[in-house]
Amino acid sequence: MNFIYPVNVNSPSKYAEKTVVKNYKYFNRGQYQDNLEQNEINLPKEKKKRLQEYDYHLKRFQYHQALDSVLLKKNVELTITVLEELIDRNALKLALLNRSENELEILLNFILWKIRDPKTMNILLYVFNLLIEYYVITLGKNEKIDSLFLKIKKAITEEISYQMKLKDIGNKIESIENLQDLYNQKDFDM
Prior knowledge:
Blueprint: H1 12-17, H2 24-27, H3 53-59, H4 63-73, H5 76-88, H6 92-96, H7 101-114, H8 121-135, H9 143-189
């Protein structure tokens, strides 16, 4: 009688018989989750953060679309941030040129809305000066655009007159304080 001995699964003789590796898993070992041991940690993949539309356009150097998308959100801080970023990239000219009447109207309405805010005044004055420089040729062709330019000009002149009055009042207060100091010194010297 011939006895067939069961082959031990862990015996090295079983592995010695296999000389040719024809298994796909052999070449990709360590990449399957089934091959992980208990001590190994399986970290979940982090989800990609989705960019805002204006960030997406800035990343692709589409400055015109970035400014348009942020203006539609009507968020002042975001708009000023994007304008500052465009200034830093020397791309504000690209973002302001070749605007349609509707796009220009949206931008001018934003400037008119926030031109008197001390936080945004400097940047918006700079942008408005550039708009005048770029669109001086188109003035007189669209009544809405012309009226917005005039309203912004009027708001700027009013703000300048307010600032001059405040400076004058500040000077008067300073002179009164100086007189008060002189009066206090005379009383002290006696």
